[in-house]
Amino acid sequence: MRAITLMLKTLWSPGAAFAEIREARIGPWVPIAVTIAFGLLNTFLLTNRVDVGDALMREFMRNPQVSNMSAEQLAEMRQGMEQGAPLIRAAFYGIAVAFPFASVIVAGLYFGIFLVLGSRSGFMSFWATTAFAFTPMMIGSIASIGVMYTIPPAAMQLGQLNVLSPAVFLDPNVEAGAIYALAQALSLTTIWTLCLLIIGYGVVGTKRSSTTLRSVVVVTPWLLTVALRVLPALLF
Predict the structure, then answer these.
(1) Cβ 106 vs Cβ 130: under 8 Å
(2) Tens of pLDDT, residues 193-210
(3) Does residue 38 contact residue 138 with C-beta atoms inside 8 Å?
(4) At what angle do helices 123-133 and 14-24 cross, to 10 degrees?
(5) With contact defined as beta carbons under 8 Å apart, do 104 and 183 qualify?
(6) 85: phi > 0 → left, psi -120 to 50 → alpha, else beta; which?
(7) I want to staple 53 with a disulfide (CB 3.0 to 4.6 A). Which of 38, 81, 162, 173 is the partner?
C-alpha cells in the first residue's frame, strides 16, 4: 500500500517521494505490477472492441511503399492478418506484460552513466527510481481507455490511443509519416516521465550533478530513440 501511495505522490511531490523511496529502500516491483495490470486491462478492452488485425492493416496501408504492392499481395496480407488474429492478440498481451520491464534497461543505461559521473548508489535504487518515474504511463493508460469508446472501432488507428500527444489532433491518413511519428513521441506522459527521471536521479544519484547535467544525460538517449523512430518515416 505504501508503494502505491508513493507512486501517486511522484505525480505532485516527486522530490519527497523519491527521497522516501530511497530511504525506505523500496523496490520496483509494485509499480511494475501496477503497470502490467493497467496494460492487461487496456489490452483486454482493446482486443474485445477492435479487430486488431484490421487496425494493423490500416496502419500498414499508411506506408507509401504499399502503392508498389498489387491487389493480390494486399489481399494475401489481409487474409494472413485475419488468420493470425489469435497470435496477434497474444502478442499484444505479451507486450503489455513485457513493457514495464523496459525500466530495467533504462535503469541500467542511466546507472552506468551516473556511475561514471560519481554516483555511489546501487543499481536497485536506480531501478526503483526508474520504475516509479514511469507512473505517468498509468494516466496515459486511463486516457486511452476513454479513446477506445469514443472512436468507432472500424475507424480507429492504434496511434490514436496515445491521446496525451499532439498526434490526437492530426489525421494519420493525411499527415506525413515523420510528422505523425514525431507528434506521437512528444506525448505528455513521455515528457512527464523524463521530468520525473531528472528529479529522481537527482535524489538517488550524485550530488555533484546539476539539474542541467542530469537533464542532458536523461534527455539525450530519448532524443536518439525519437530520431530512430522519425528518420525511417522521413526517408521511406
Answers:
(1) yes
(2) 999 999 999 998 766 678
(3) yes
(4) 140
(5) no
(6) alpha
(7) 81
| Cβ-contact 112, 203 below 8 angstroms | no
Please tell me the distance from the alpha carbon of residue 170 to that of residue 212, in angstroms, as a whole number.
33
Instruction: Please answer whether residues 156 and 132 qualify as being in contact, where contact means their C-beta atoms are separated by less than 8 angstroms.
Output: no
Could you tell me the three cell numbers for 232? 525511417
Measured distance CA(231)–CA(236) in Å, rounded: 8
pLDDT in tens, 57-87: 777 776 666 667 777 877 777 777 777 778 8
- Tell me 154's DSSP state: G
DSSP state for residue 83 in the 8-state scheme: H
Q: Residue 223 CA to chain centroid, in angstroms?
A: 14
Query: Would you tell me how many other CB atoms lie within 10 Å of the CB of residue 128?
Result: 29
d(CA 16, CA 87): 44
- The number of domains in the chain is 1
Question: Reduced to 3 states, what is the DSSP secondary structure of residue 151?
Answer: coil
Report pTM: 0.87
Nearest to 167 by CA among 145, 190, 149, 198: 190
Query: Which residue type is seen at 85?
Result: A
Lookup result for grid cell 544519484: 205
Query: How many C-beta atoms lie closer than 10 Å to residue 227's C-beta?
Result: 13
Q: Which three cell numbers stand for residue 97?
A: 506484460
HSE-CB at 121 with a 13 A cutoff on CA atoms is 29
C-beta separation of 110 from 130 below 8 A: yes
Q: What is the mean pLDDT of the chain?
A: 85
